[in-house]
Amino acid sequence: MSFKSFLKPREYQEYMVRELNSLMERANYGGYVGGFEFMEAMPTLQRSAAMATRLALRKPAVGRKAIQQTYGRFEASFGSFGDVMRNEMWKGLKGSAKSEVDLMEIARHIDRMTGVMSSKGLGLGKTQRDFEQAFMFFAPRYTRAGFALVGDMLKGGFTGDQARKALGSMMAAGAIIYAGTAKAMGQEPNFDPTSGKFMTIEITDPVTGTTRHFGIGGMMTSMMRFGADVAASATGQGLNEPLDFVKMSRFDNPFLKFMFSKSAPLTGFTEGMMFGHNYFGEPFENPSDYASFLGEQVMPIALQSAFMEKEGLSPTAILAEELGMRTFPRSDWEKRNNLRDQLAQATYGVDWEQVGLQYGELAQLQIERGSPELQVATEQATETTGKMARGEGLVWDSWRKEGKAVEERYRQSIMTASAEFSAIGDGTTFREKVDEAAAIRRAMYGQREQSPEYAEINQYFSQPMTPEQMARMNPKDIARREYYQLMYTPDMYDQFGNYRFDEADRREQLFVQRYGKGMLDYVEDYMGAKWDEPPALQALKAARDVLRPYWDIEREVWSQLPPELKKISDQIKILERTDPITAKKMLFSYPQIVFVRRRIALFKRQLKATNPEIATALARFYRY
Questions:
Q1: How far apart are CA 195 and CA 30, in angstroms?
Q2: Could you give the residue ranges of the DSSP H alpha helices within 70-204?
Q3: pLDDT confidence of residue 618
Q4: How confident is the model at residue 37 (pLDDT cuts 50, 70, 90)?
Q5: With pLDDT > 90 as the criterion, what percentage of the chain qualifies?
Q6: 490: which DSSP letter?
Q7: How many CA atoms lie within 13 A of 403 on its CB side?
Q8: What is the DSSP string of 308-374?
Q9: Of the N and C termini of the chain, which has fewer Cβ atoms inside 10 Å?
Q10: How far apart are the first and last CA of the chain?
């Protein structure tokens, strides 16, 4: 009947005439007759449209007709859905009544089941009704009816019995139908009320090809999600925390969040204009954002998904809204994740998660680096999250942005140094600038780690992995994480803030001894795959790999001598740069150090003479 009325509103009127006796009978026992309150502004809207077309075209009938053929069809569809359902339920239930009191309870129960309630019948004055509709509730009668139906469950008598049966039947039948539908479509049912995808399925529009979530809406769904949100805040699940209950933010406090979801459009409009964001918290960045927000306030819910969303017109979304379902498009993260799975299937024949588990995160990173489309999708999803970040999410967003800024600065420095190297060919200067850029990057990351603002994040990353986490990771990535913990900890810096390269070499050797050279190569490949390194930097890294045996000579020689002697030698090296005379005096006191230095120099000359690659690497990047 709802669809018939949309296509031919006269069907609704004819039904009301045919069923007039039944409708009036129910009304006599306190039942509500009339459309939903969502369409109460129709007469006012028609008058406004008529006035506009009279001023613009001198034809007021054009405005009235336009509203009739658009909003009017939605009014007939919504109204027929409610009135027909209430009337048919009345005809089916009234036979079980034993008295007039039972008939009144049946009429009242039907109203509350279908989301209507007469505010006049409750004795509310016009001023209060107008205030509620303007500032408090999006649909006062619907909201009050929903709460009343839940309250009826706790009562005895016919009303309580019917309320329990109705809610129990709706919940059980709804869950069974939903689970069966999801399974039939090859999807997993979602019964997690803390998720926005609670009791939804994905449907691809045959006309537009866009995929949306479709689910059961209404007061009961809203109440279940509210209860889950309260429980999540009380127990600190996910991003929720007990402090949410004392926050005055409508995005954090579960009670304020629920109340705002039921608030009047004028309240939402005022709040949005005052704070410059939409219902979901996305900030307005340009005039078109404000225009879209204003358009949402005057457009029927069913049409908002067609004209106000990025995906555009969706016939299935309009159809679902007509049925009273809730529908929303895939989030940016869902789109990104689906694209990742498609690319993973095309490359490795498995989904994205299995690529990481079987081949390592390096394989995932290479897929992303090879797909500009995936990079754009990830950037867009991250940007959307950043816009709506709040509380702990805001801290994580700030932490990520700082890391991104550090990497951008480092890469820009490398690109500038590479351009200079290409122009003048000075490898030594290039190496020094690369080392300086790396030192600055380490210092900036170190500063971020020491920031009290990110204490909880740093603590999270410093915690050892659980067996469950390790089971979801490739062994190579477990080793890679251990490498980071070895090489990028606070104790890798001396008291002056300088990076301890000798200690880094020692720890790297320990890592190779434990996991093998292949694992170190994996770590370095992963770090290099994050961006397109210029050829000059790749050449420098290759030269350093070639020179490992050359630098190892000094380490091997000193390892055969007392550690104290090595410390004294290092002190002398520092003095040679600051106080050469004192350094010479100390060398005269330690002839063994002079002997060791000569021995190291001899071994290096011999290796250089027998290995052309080492000689070339030294000449290119270590010439003084």
A1: 39
A2: 71-93, 100-113, 126-131, 140-152, 157-184
A3: 92
A4: very low
A5: 19
A6: G
A7: 9
A8: TSTT---HHHHHHHHTT-EEEEPPHHHHHHHHHHHHHHHHHSS-HHHHHHHH-HHHHHHHHHT-HHH
A9: C
A10: 90
Of 90, 88, 81, give the one whose Cα is nearest residue 25.
90
Between CA 486 and CA 230 the distance in angstroms is 41
The reported pLDDT for the residue numbered 615 is: 93
Is the pLDDT reported for residue 525 higher than 70?
A: yes
Percentages (nearest 5) of helix, strand, coil residues in the chain? 75, 5, 25
Number of domains in the chain: 4
Residues 16 and 70 in one domain: yes
Q: How far is CA 43 from CA 96, 135, 138, 141, 295, in A?
A: 39, 21, 18, 19, 19
CB atoms within 10 A of CB 383: 10
Name the token pair of 436: 């300086």
- Scored b (16 or more CB within 10 A) or e, 420-440 reads ebeeeeebeebbebbeebeee
341 in the same domain as 235: no
Residues in the chain: 624
Kindly write down the DSSP assignment for every residue of 7-49, as one continuous string.
H-THHHHHHHHHTHHHHHHHHHTT---S--GGGTTHHHHHHHH
On the 0-12 / 13-18 / 19+ scale of CB atoms within 10 A, 146 is: buried
CB 162 within 8 A of CB 178: no
Q: Considering the domain boundaries, does residue 407 fall inside one? A: no
Q: Say if residue 339 is in the same domain as residue 321.
A: no
Q: Between residues 414 and 487, which one has the greater pLDDT?
A: 414
Lookup: tokens for 616: 């070339």
Which tokens sit at 451?
Answer: 């920031």
Q: Are residues 236 and 115 in the same domain?
A: no
The whole-angstrom separation of Cα 130 and Cα 54 is 29
Q: Which range marks the domain in which residue 346 is found?
A: 332-388
Contact between 309 and 294 (Cβ < 8 Å): no
Q: Are 158 and 93 in contact (CB under 8 A)?
A: no
Question: Does residue 249 sit in the same domain as residue 358?
Answer: no
* Residue 511 belongs to a domain: no
